[in-house]
Every structure is written in structure tokens, then in C-alpha cells.
Amino acid sequence: MSGCFICEKHLDMSSVPGGVIAEDEHIVVSHLPLVTPQGTAESVYLGRLVLEPRRHVEDLGELTDDQAASLGRMAARGSAALRRAAGAEHVYAAVISDAIPHIHLHLLPRYPATPREYWWVRLDEWPDAPMGGADEVAELAERLRAVA
User: Fold this and answer.
1) So what's the pLDDT on residue 2?
2) What is the pLDDT of residues 111-147, one digit of tens each?
3) Taking a C-beta distance cutoff of 8 angstroms, is the pair 145, 22 a contact?
4) Using one digit for the tens of pLDDT, what is the confidence trace for 91-114?
5) Angle at Cα 137 formed by Cα 99 and Cα 131, nearest 5°?
6) 3-state helix, strand, coil in the chain (%, to 5)
7) Cα–Cα distances in angstroms (integers) from residue 87 to residues 58, 71, 112, in the given order
8) What are phi and psi of 12, to 5 degrees?
9) How many Cα neighbours within 13 Å face the side chain of 35?
10) Does 5-147 carry CATH code 3.40.630.30?
11) Taking Cα atoms as reference points, which of 143, 107, 145, 146 lies closest to residue 22?
12) Which residues lie across from 132 on neighbouring strands?
């Protein structure tokens, strides 16, 4: 869909640090990008993956059965990859699509050293959060692809 950040991002995944981590005919999995409609960041929380339908869909209820099944499979694969390749202790999943009207599922890893008081609402205040720029995201994406 013209004007949709996610639909346009899918047209040039080479510009997203780490590129495509996993995909099928319905879903694209990538790392949270450094450039979003909210602005540009120099670093992001490492391991925060986004799972996005290829088709422009604004609500979970608009997913076809095949898309919903694919989203579930990709979420399970992404979660397992975050545990194996990134050392996540637990992986949370959240659908947050108000800021960008294209449904996307966030996979949010909690690492063993994460202080409970910072997870996940105050993550931006955690001084030792595992953050990384484009190079670190690309390196992590490569490890995730190897086990996904």
C-alpha cells in the first residue's frame, strides 16, 4: 500500500540493518529498524524482532487463516532463535500497531541480566540494556538466520 511505512520497507529490505531474518509467502521477519516513522535512532534494543504480513493488514482480525498460521509459526521460530543465538531467557510477544497502521508482532527478548524493574516498560531507562547500531544488528541477524 502506498504511503505505508511497512509496505514500503518490504520493497527495499536491503536498507534495513540485518535485512530479512526469515520469511515465507505471508510473513517477513526482521530486526527493529533504526529508522522508523517516529525518527532515527543510533541504536536499538538488540533482538527486538518484528513480524509483518506482506499484505497490508491493519488488524489481527483481517489476517487470513493462512497468514495467521504463518505468523504463529514465524513467532515460534523467532522466539527459539532468540533463545539459541542471542541467549534470551524469555521472549515476550506484543502486537502494537497504532503508530503504524500495518499489523506487526514484536518479539521482545528478556536476557538473563535484565533487572526485573526495567522490563519492558522502562527498558529505555535501563543503563546496561543490550543496545546496538547497524553493525551489531546485522551481526545478530546473521546469528539468528543461522538457527532460524
Assistant:
1) 78
2) 887 766 655 555 666 677 789 999 999 999 999 999 9
3) yes
4) 999 997 678 899 999 999 988 877
5) 75
6) 35, 25, 40
7) 32, 22, 8
8) -145, 70
9) 9
10) no
11) 145
12) 44
Say if pTM beats, i.e. exceeds, 0.85: yes
C-alpha cell of 113? 541480566
Extents of the domains making up the chain: 5-147
Q: Find cell 527498558 and name the residue.
A: 123
| 83, three cell numbers | 533463545
pLDDT in tens, 19-76: 999 999 999 999 999 988 788 999 999 999 999 999 999 999 999 999 999 999 999 9
Nearest of 74, 35, 76 to residue 52 by alpha carbon: 74
